[in-house]
Design brief:
single chain; alpha/beta; D-Maltodextrin-Binding Protein, domain 2; 2 domains; 5-stranded mixed beta sheet; 10 strands; 21% strand
Length: 249
Amino acid sequence: MLKKIIIVSLLLCSSLFAGTIKIAVAANVSYAIDSLIKEFNKNNPKCKVVVILGSSGKLTAQIKNGAPYGLFMSANMKYPNALYKDKSAVTKPIVYAYGSLAFLSGKPQDFTKGMDILKDNKISKIALANPKTAPYGKVALEAMKNVNIYNDVKKKIVYAESISQAVYYSITAADIGFVAKSAFFSPKMANYEKGIHWSEIDSKLYTPIKQGVVILKDGRNSKEIKAFYDFILSTKAKQIFQDFGYSIP
């Protein structure tokens, strides 16, 4: 009898986290999300996680317009705070990671120049995620203004829809670009060397990038969403974020 109870209990536990969940994820997390889902699925093998990537601003607009996402991992706290305020989110935003800003170029560059590299005559196009919808684009703009070079280089700027598109532009349509440091921990970026093709930007030049997570209205009754939310705030997830160049709270 005891054995039967244990078996039934195990079946019930496994069925709690079965099914499919949809989550909205800021583009900078695209490099880490596969590893996060793989780790999550070790304990929740029957739960399929469908990821919708985009700039935090655009994802927020979709959520406000009724997109059926259960959870939102933003690139800052502004958007999840707004969703919580208008009751589109049911949990108070919590920081799950701190992001970092970096330069990227498809060609070798002299990064010892720091931000002044943008004024170089050889730099004719600078890739930047749209600061109106992409938090990494906003802090990149802030960094340029803080060293008083924005007015000198603003005509060079090529705007991308998201930080992941800014990565693509940085190595194709532009000479250099502002990207998330997390991009360089992807195997696809293995050919780009630190100090030659990319360099971190002094974090003192921009507001800390606090990335926030919330459960949305569509996910409030989902045990699978709650399980994924708890996982994102877990020690195992924090280690993965660190492996991809983030700092953790």
